[in-house]
Fold each of these.
Amino acid sequence: MIKISGLQDIASNYRAIICDVWGVVHNGVHAHQQAAQALENFRAQGGYVVMLTNSPRPSSAVSTQMTQLGVPNSAYDDVVSSGDLTASYLRKHGFKTVFHVGPERDLLVFGLVDLQRCSNVDDAEVVVVTGLVDDRTESPEDYKSMLAQIKSRDLTLLCANPDRHVKVGDRLLPCAGSVAELYENSGGKTVYLGKPFPFAYEEAHARLARLGFEGPNDKILVVGDGPQTDIMGANEQKLDSLYILSGLFVGDVAQDRLWTLAEEALSEHHVHASYALEHLTW
């Protein structure tokens, strides 16, 4: 892993960026303006930027949120969300009834597909988990009894956000991936729709192709803060990666300690990053 001083150091090596959203260009409270500027500068040099996020919401809602937080549309060309991927999977497999686990704010994803939401697990063909109903007061363990009921029916659980945790301001909150992991570990059939899984990168590649990018994989750079999602996905797709250290570490961490924690996080998940920055800057 090579420490760089900014994206400018390596930008000329690439023609396209697949970039994470939460933790890189914003933290759920405000935009990281230097990150947005770095992506704008990359695009100004002729590069393409596709935002690839594990958000369970439609990409249109992700774009709206970025705008509200101060990330300009000029920082990217397109957005692919786990919400989009989930809706596509539901359509492809013809499900008509679904049981939703997650907050009401994530219901937008079901507007992308023609199906009925059930209030009872016993009436559903499939389960979609978009998150915890209240991620500020609940833990994944609170869902064990519900997951046992789902497993008793041998239902497939679709995880519309493979992230285990997300940093919101200065807090680290559990995501849908932590609930899905419990179900998978209990032997339940689980499908993850997002990073680091191939379906997400196939869609990102398709969007880049529509934009006019025809280069080989060694001209694509993955930018993200998640060892288990962004960096692992890049490794599996044989893409170079830029690891953003600040996205998942909470509180004030001394710089030397930050780099040690980053190395440990990569090692824990048996992945490697090509480059690293504390924050995405130009």
Amino acid sequence: VTTGQFREFADATGYKANDVCNIWDGTTAFKTPNTGWRNPGYGRPAADNEPGACLSWDDAKAYIAWLNQKTGKSYRLLSESEWEYVARAGRPPTLYTWGNDPDGACKEANVADLQVKNVPPPMTPRPFPPANCDDGYPYIAPAGALAPNPFGVYDMIGSIWEWVEDCYVMPYPDNTPTDGSAYTGPNGCDRRTSKGGSWGSTIDRQIPTFRGRDPSTLTSQVFGFRIARDLGE
């Protein structure tokens, strides 16, 4: 979901998302007042064609409820297993979706790469070695700017961490669904799963099996969401 799509929802409903977002300061991410999805710490307002950032799992659910009511369709967050299936897109089970070489990321993934030295103030480069490739963007790339995967889907890896429906539990419980649906726990959960890494993540976070784990209320300049629609309605 892009900034522009989320803006349409917020303008239509008056929805108020958190205006204190976790922003990177060069050493860590900290809660920064007067930020949020309109101003996610880029040194400029978020562009409508960029993936929406500083959006929590709860924001995602509010957007989906509005979209379903508006369209009469059934949109939702992906489950974790659905997300991994789409990210791999029928390719061999290599470490990364594109292969085993981390430096092969930049064709289809907006990651922390050789462009990281060009991030504009007030942003600061990450203190870890970048991927040895160049995706053309020092931080967030416009949605769909890089190559799609073999399923024709864009930005599954890198760009923005994507919330999925699942509760985060480790290890996986014995009653984890095997039909592709989300694990939501018997009594809900205090953390939700995120997938895919981001433009500011270390390359080891970009493997499709890596699982983020955060409260549903978390807002971060590298967190947003993707939605799916149930067909056959």
